Structure formats: structure tokens, C-alpha cells
Amino acid sequence: MNAGALVSRSTLAQEFAARRVDFPILAREVHGKPLAYLDNAATAQKPRAVIDAVRRYYESQNSNIHRGVHTLSEEATTAYERARDQVRDFLHAADRREIVFVRGTTEAINLVAQSWGSEHLGPGDEVLVSTMEHHANIVPWQLVCERTGARLRVIPIDDDGDVDLEAFERLLCERTRLFAIVQVSNALGTVNPVAEMVARARARGIVTLVDGAQAVPHMQVDVRALGCDFYAFSGHKLFGPTGIGVLYGRAELLDAMPPYQGGGDMIRMVSFEKSLWNDLPYKFEAGTPNIAGTIGLGAALEYVAGIGLDSIGAWEAELLEYATARAHERGDLRLIGTARHKASVLSFVMDRIHPHDLGTILDREGVAIRTGHHCAMPVMERYGVPATARASFAFYNTFAEIDALFAGLDKARQLLG
Question: Looking at the whole model, is its pTM more than 0.85?
Fold first, then answer.
């Protein structure tokens, strides 16, 4: 590494170390050791700005939104709808009507599967996904395929964890009705060439959905540049609250889709003979929404924008490079997922030590990682392992925390042989 790169790394390290004070939980200890939180792919920690936004709503604005004419309702509605505009800007969507608030990525994909899929899939049709998908981008399609007679097809991945683009091209055919792909794999860290893949599918008239749950915390996303018809993400992985997520959908598609759920706020008129649906996006937002979570998501987007996703991505790339180099120094560790383009995920197995045992020992050292199949059982089957240990990074992580991870692995080796 040249001197310029070292200076850049040092500058980034200082910049992001200063951000740690924004996250109250990072100051705590676990089992008497400083917390090293390396489980960000499961959920990210929350900055004070998000915590304060949620508290402020409950302390001073708590009211149901829409239709209320009193001050609290109007203030809550304004804050809620401002978050929709923030999401539109964050995704570079064309229209705020294309932003639907849901509980998370899972509900967003289920919405598309149930509402669009039930209307457009039939016997002989095909839905195309990849081997590296999270269960949330597999099971909803299995369910709708079972009901409609459609078939689920799967794009293979290679030993490094890259999607097989030649196989993808072969699998695209006149029967393919929908192509759904993860942008960044939660189990492998692979960054897929989604723009290229979406373009190939769209050229054949195939509807496309991108699972962006693991992408939005690490890189800029422009849904119009990607060209996808649907895009889904969760707020809690983007430093926002749990229980809030987003479905982006092109307005013409959403407008033609039937409601996903029935109830309040998704209707224009109800009688016992017939009901008329509300305009977009409210047609898909039945019942009282997660108002506090939505406002918190808006605060998270504002916080991230104040840092810059380009800077975040640059620092996280340094963290991943450092952790990968430390992993390669060991002879007892096998990396699962070695694609050339990766983001913030280091999955691995150690000789003769089960990942769950690793996780338990690391916890005693204050290091939080995720162990298991990561809701990606087909990935585990592809690599012939029952589970992996996964360290996943956010911009508030440090080289010292990665060192603590590998010191914990040394201790596990000493204890378990």
C-alpha cells in the first residue's frame, strides 16, 4: 500500500471513529469487554438522531395520521409524508406515489408476489431468482407459483459466489414473467451486476424486482438508473427503526395492481355492495401504519445523507479488505464467498469448530457476530456447510474491532482445539 493510500485510510479511520459517539449503544460493555458489534447485516445500530426523532414523535406529536384536522394529527401527517419524500429522493424515484411504506423487505416482496403475481402468473409461466437469495425472495414466489401453476427457476452461482451470467441468459425465455434478484447477498456479500441483469430482462419484456436490503446501507441507489420495476429495502438495516420498510414500484404497475390488504386508509369509498380504492400509494397502506418508525426512517436517511454513501462505502471497503487479509493469514479458516465485488460481509467456517460455538465464545469476548444459515439455506447447501460465522461491517466499525474478532477466534482455537 502506497503512502497516499495510507493517508486516505488514516483520514477515513479518524472521520468515522468520530461518528461512533452518535451511537449510544456502542459505549456499552458485554461480559466486561467493550462491545464490538459486527452483526450489521442482521440489523444496524441507531444513531441518536433516529432515537430522538422517534422519542420526539411520541412525546409531542403522537396522533394518527391523515383525515385528522387537529394540530397533532396534522403535525404527524406532515412528518410521515415528509419521510416519503425523503425516500423518493434517496432512491431517485420519479414520483412520491411510487413509494409504499411496508414493514420491511419481506412484506414488500410478499406484496408484489401476492398482488402482481396472482394477477399475472399462470400455468407454464416462470419466475427467475438466483441461488444466493434470502428466503424472503424465495418463499413468496414458491407460494404464488403453487397457487398459479407457475414454475420457479434458479440461476446458479460459482465457487466464488458470483452469479452465472451465461446461465442467467439461457434461463431467460418467453415463459419468464418476473425476474427477482438480490443486489447484495446477505450470506456472501456478493454485489450483483443488477443494472446489467435488469436490462437484459427488461429487453425481453420481463418484470423485474431488486431486493436492496443489504445494498442501501452501503451504496447509492438510483432506481431509474437500475431500470427495475420494483425495489425493496428495510429501514432497520439502514440505521432506522425496526418494523418499517419500503417498496418502490413504477406507478403504472402499482396503479394496475389490486390491493394487498383491506381496511382503513386504503379505500376511497365503502359500501356493502362495493368499495373503491384510494390513490397511490395509499391503496397499499391499509390500517394505522408504523408512524414513529417511518419518521425514524426519515431521520436515518437524513443522517446518512449528512455523511455521504460514497464515503461510507469507501471506509467499509477498507474494513472488509483488512478483515479479508486477516482471514487469509489463517490456515484453519475457509471463507464462504470470495466474489471480486463484495460489500461488508465476511462469512467463514473454521476447521473442526461449529459456527455456533464460535459465536458463543466471541460473545464472551464482547464480539457480536451472526451464526447459522442466515435465511439463505440454498447458499449453505451450495457450499456444503450447515452454517457459517458471519461478521458484517458498518461505517462505525474499526480495525481494532476486527482485531478483537480474530483474537476471539484464537481463543476459540485454544479452547476447542
Answer: yes
Q: How many CA atoms lie within 13 A of 249 on its CB side?
A: 24
Q: What is the mean pLDDT of each run of 10 residues along the chain (417 residues)?
A: 60 91 98 98 98 98 94 97 98 98 98 97 98 98 98 98 98 98 98 98 98 98 98 98 98 96 88 89 95 98 97 97 97 96 97 96 98 97 98 98 98 92
Flag whether 39 is in a domain.
Answer: no
How far apart CA 367 and CA 371 sit, in angstroms, is 12
328: enclosing H helix or E strand: helix 309-328
Distance CA 114, CA 414 (A): 51
Number of domains in the chain: 2
Listed residue (183, 186, 161) closest to 336, CA to CA: 161
Look-up of cell digits 424515484: 93
Q: Dig out the grid coordinates for 133 from the structure.
A: 437469495
Q: Where in the sequence is the domain holding 387, given as residue range(s)?
A: 3-30+308-416
Of 145, 173, 228, 375, which one is the catalytic site residue? 375
Residue 348 near residue 336 (C-beta atoms within 8 A): yes
Question: Using an 8 Å Cβ cutoff, are 266 and 285 in contact?
Answer: yes
Is 36 within the bounds of a domain?
no
375 flagged as catalytic: yes
